[in-house]
Amino acid sequence: MAIKHPTPMLDELEKGPWPSFVTDIKRAAEAGKEACADLLGQLELSYNDKEGHWKHGGIVGVLGYGGGVIGRYSDVPNLFPGVEHFHTVRVNQPASKFYKTERLREIMDIWNRRGSSMLNMHGSTGDIILLGAFTEQLEPIFAELTQKGWDLGGSGSALRTPECCLGKARCEWACIDTQDICYNLTQEYQDEMHRPAWPYKFKFKISGCPNDCVASIARSDCSIIGTWRDDIRIDQAAVAAYAGGEIPARGGAMGQGVKLDVQKDVVELCPTGCMSYEGGKLAINNRECTRCMHCINLMPKALRPGTDTGATILVGAKAPILEGAQLSSVIIPFIKMEEPYDEFKEFVANTWDWWDENGKNRERIGETIQRLGLQSYLDALGFDPVPQMVKEPRSNPYFFYTEDEVPGGFDRDIEVFRKKHAR
Which pTM value belongs to this model? Predict the structure, then answer.
């Protein structure tokens, strides 16, 4: 099929050294995909008109599921009938996104026959994003996917598809089994994924260590980050080898032969100042360590995480929608994340109950906590504040305690104050 719509503005995006999505769509159009040919035409029109020509699809999906399909229609179907319907189907990815080639071919066979053939590997939540299907094809697509063992991911005001890093499959720093946690949560919360019932979306992201390679602290409503609570393991002989230039910094990632200055590059850059280097020996005050991984990343052969491993649980991250971007806050500094994860699931249930009762429409849990105060959330869960929750020193002097928070009550407190300041 020839390109049937002139696209002078899109053609500009094919110039230069970088790969272009326009070239990919043109290739699919030339292979006979009408949806791709008309998509080019509608996109060109959008660039000319400086407005999108899509309208939201409202309620569209598959029988029994409230999510997994994002409805979209063209508002100029008379001009571009190939994209009159252009629904997106989200397919739940396996933990850590490990695929066999034949499984990917299964999806592409279905999508080439019943959809536009365009897809996104992956969306920011995870999920294989299948772009562009007509309404009448949704049920057949879903049926064929499920026959092959695939399922739809989350969308709408529901639990989004849990996502995790490579974990113990390929990373020596993993303190928790991220893949098992991801799979367990996906299986446990099927109703929450497929039947939206909350104020807004909710995301789990699981990182095996504080390097946080899936950026859970910036993107997830509940971050599960592997950590340890005992001492960092030190190999002093390897420290000496780094100092002598026998082992390059960062395992040679910055270039072979890069000599590490242990005092300048490691000790003086520790964010809490908990390290010292004297007489060729490295010492760490582990009580002051915040597990930032800086020293371990620089000297991976000399330093390793401790052996008493678990996870730090944080809540409340989000991208900028209503209240702007925010990072998640520490709620549980350390928890042993071991199957069947009952303690964590109890925490999740209590968190959802509080959010469901207090959250406004399209308000992420981090925004609810910001609006009502972290103390309100902690009180509801029965948690005491801990130092890890403090983001900055208190700047508002108008903070009042309740009587049960003052030892001996207000009357005793007032009497102590009077005696102290009596003339």
Answer: 0.88
